[in-house]
Amino acid sequence: MKKLSIITINYNNRDGLRKTIESVVHQTWQDFEYIVIDGGSKDGSVEVIKEFADHIDYWVSEPDKGIYNALNKGVAVAQGEYCNFMNSGDCFYASDTLKRVFETNPTADIVCGNTYSDHLKTPPQAITFDFLFNESICHQCAFIRTTLMKKYGYDEKYKIVADRKFFVQALLLDNCSYQAVDVDVVKYDITGFSAANPVQSRLEYAQVLEELVPERIRIDYGRKSQGELYGDTDYDKLFVEIRKRNYRKPIYSLVVGLLRIMAVFVGSASFIKKYPLKLDK
User: Is 208:132 a contact under the CB 8 Å cutoff?
Assistant: First the structure.
């Protein structure tokens, strides 16, 4: 058995895929299998995969149902002791990254290193609910026991935060072991889907917490985070209630439409440009 399964998912990101694959195959530590799941790309991505076929243990190019469906496909065929998810566009920080991680002889269920995007971010030394409520572990910097991934998988009803749900299930509810290592693991692509959709990410994560965490705990932490997810004032609670209702889509579209008109005349309303005019769900 290999120590690690590296899983890369891709869809029409040929240049990002090449960067990711090169960062994997140039690792000085090679006790891993490499799995590439492509969503049926038409931009030349498959040709890039074939170019590196000698370094890839398993690959497929076929339509999928989204990011987490593709990741679950990779988990299903993974045979390493740990899994790492290095999506197209992301890359290992240096050629000796894996060597530095695994020379520490990690034994925890989930091992996390440092992430670099526009700045360096280190993982917490210990996992608390306060951290999981307000922040997230970058799953590209994490090495997760494959048995744990196969047990839970990623909940495909979520488009952005299924990895955050997994960490709550594994680290909070299942009390899995955790270890932070001071190794720069990943250069994270900040143009990725989750980074580009912060509003939807917050709304989805609120849904995750409603699903997994009792209300009496959520409310306390909602106050602690100044109402970002739940709110403590009538103003905040109004919008939380609207989000739960069937008529939330027309109300949302009406508000966004009015603010877009206002943004033409009032500069401070220009923030509305980052919000889509219509909700997906």
Answer: no
How far apart are alpha carbons 46 and 222 in whole angstroms? Answer: 45
List, in sequence order, the alpha helices (H) in 121-247: 129-134, 146-152, 162-167, 198-212, 215-224, 234-244
d(CA 189, CA 175): 30
Give the Cα separation of 87 and 94 in Å (integer). Answer: 16
Structure tokens at 258: 């009015």
In sequence order, what are the residues at sequence separation of 6 or more whose Cβ sits closer than 8 angstroms to the Cβ of residue 123?
112, 113, 114, 115, 137, 141, 180
- Model pTM score: 0.78
Q: Per-residue pLDDT tens for 252-280?
A: 889 989 999 998 988 888 888 888 888 76
Amino acid at 95: S
Per-residue pLDDT, averaged over 234-243, amounts to 69
3-state secondary structure of 268: helix
- Measured CA to CA, the distance from residue 76 to residue 39 in angstroms comes to 16
Tell me the residue type at 21.
I
Nearest to 13 by CA among 50, 47, 43, 57: 43
DSSP string for residues in 63-123: --SSHHHHHHHHHHH--SSEEEE--BTBEESSTTHHHHHHTT---SSEEEEEEESSSEEPP
